[in-house]
């Protein structure tokens, strides 16, 4: 009769739970399943170039908005606020306010500024700040693209820095050109939303006005996204997209999809103040340099929310909401290299890897049973549960399996075999010294556990370092190896000892150590 014990119960329950959670990864049934990486299921890999100089230019626009806001808060009158050739210019209308204006510029930080006696200020970013902006643009682009792809629904996309100004994006599971185009559009969309005032006094001449003339007035000419017209807008935006806190798909009164957005408290205040002070005038909603609408303000708009309508399809509105919600790219990105990985390569790789895995496993099985007899059978049962648990945990975590990950599984299975060999040899040593079965199991596991813990601790530290300092497939290898080590300790030390404790009376009663351990010596 098998005597239940806590170790055996944990082992059996882990095995049952692991089997249930690993089945969806092998059969077409619902449940958590392992995601296959780019090298196993095919997909798209792209190298993006980030235009960091544009990020600096965009930062000057944001700085102009911030200075306008701070001056208004401090009740300082300024005029001619504009950005020319990466230098921000404005005029201080009351020279007595110079100290207060200097304090505001100093508080903003990272700026170098000069003041002329006629009230003209020239403000520019310091070289250190420019380098910080460029570095931040790369980091922000990586985070934004990763957020967009997560919201897009792709499983485990990889977005990593490549060199100084490039980003490597790997998208497993992209199977056709339609999905490829949608993913590229989503990644490269700047999603830079601005609300800009219409220059009502000069807009009637916009068709005859040149870009240079508009710039002279501190304006910019932008096209409408529909209809082919254009409009003259104040170059310094009222509100910048950085102030958006949420964006969702909604439907207007004609059941057409629109994108509604919500601003943070600062944006809501700017939005409310501007709309309250400019009733009867127009305010344009501009996205990525194109005007979606320029409605006349009928009343003060409070609440800090608005909407973008543009004859969107539901999918386009959803992608735009994702782009706005995940944040605008502070610098444009451009695809400079694109490569599709066919799924057939992955299928061949999986087939070759599975052949290697099962061939090795069968050889190990034959050796363990031939050399250790029933102890080998117990060790093989632990190895089977070991593999099942690795698959189950990876599926539950939504981890991605890559070729390096499969190598990690093979490596940890090899370490699990090693752990079982150590245990069996320690049991044999105890039996050789004349210990009875109960003493041999207790002493054998105590000695084996120390050696197994020591060797696995150093390996799991190596896996931790690989995860922290590695990227992409290296991280996948580290995760797989760490999971395999933890599971190996559970199955080899906890699981097999539970089986031996349950069978120790039966082993002692049989008096046949050759059948149980493949040896003929020792006491019982």
Unreliable spans: none
Shape: elongated
For this entry, what is the oligomeric state of its chains? single chain
What is the helix fraction of residues, given as a range?
A: 40-55%
**Overall pLDDT score:** 83
DSSP summary: helix tally = 15
**What structural category arises from helix and sheet content?**
alpha+beta
Rounded Rg: 33 Å
> How many strand segments?
19
Q: Main β-sheet: number of strands, strand sense, barrel status?
A: 4 strands, antiparallel
Through-space gap between termini: 19 Å
Describe the structure using short key phrases.
524 residues, alpha+beta, four-stranded antiparallel β-sheet, 19 strands, 55% helix
Would you kindly provide a brief summary of this structure?
It contains 15 helices and 19 strands.
Report on this structure.
- The protein has 524 residues and is of the alpha+beta class.
- It is built from 15 helices and 19 strands.
- The protein has helices at 6-26, 38-41, 52-73, 98-108, 127-152, 177-188, 211-216, 265-277, 314-325, 343-372, 374-397, 403-432, 437-469, 473-510, 513-517, and strands spanning 35-36, 43-50, 78-84, 87-92, 111-115, 120-125, 158-162, 166-172, 193-197, 219-223, 230-234, 239-240, 244-251, 257-263, 283-287, 290-293, 305-308, 333-341, 400-401.
- A 4-stranded antiparallel β-sheet has the order 7-8-2-18.
- Strand 13 and strand 14 form a beta hairpin.
- The longest helix is centred in the C-terminal third of the chain and has 38 residues, at 473-510.
- The mean pLDDT is 83.
